[in-house]
Fold:
Amino acid sequence: MNPTKKTGRKKKTRMLAYAHARAIARALKLRSRADWREFAASGLRPPNVPSNPSRTYKDDGWVGWGHWLGTGNTSTLNMYFRPYGDARRFASALGLKTSRDWHAYSCSGARPSDVPSNPQVVYRDAGWSGMFRWLGTGTAATTQPMAR
Structure:
């Protein structure tokens, strides 16, 4: 075989250790997985930092996107939330009246981490029956009939 003959295969780049690659990722101040994907596709990513770190470091340090980027955000798939009934009792005891009130409260920093900010998603298959019940207002949102 001719040693100068090209095989058509790319030389595999050795990736940085997880902690070093994560430091590079955090220095970019990206806020989400989507931001990372955009950066990875931009051509600015060093070749020894993986475009798909969750796969590359799956068995070697990977915790999640919030850990990788330094945002501290955790996927709802990896979070523990109170059972629906307990969370609903908590929410209704707050005395909030509208979904807008719930959103403002959720963003205020006062919401416990085991009560979801998006209960309609988390409890979709576990008893969710609307924001009016979640807040304990007892009234469903009404819409105005369309004019004919």
Observations:
- Residues 18 and 59 are 10 Å apart (CA to CA).
